[in-house]
Amino acid sequence: MAKLTSLKSGLQTQPSRLANINPDSWRAGKQTAAQRGYGYKWQKARVGWLEQHPLCVYCERNGLVTAGTIVDHIVEHRGDQALFWARSNWQTLCQPCHDIVKKAEEVARRNEARD
Ligand SMILES: [Zn+2]
Question: Nearest-CA neighbor of 84 among 48, 55, 42, 52?
Answer without folding.
Answer: 42
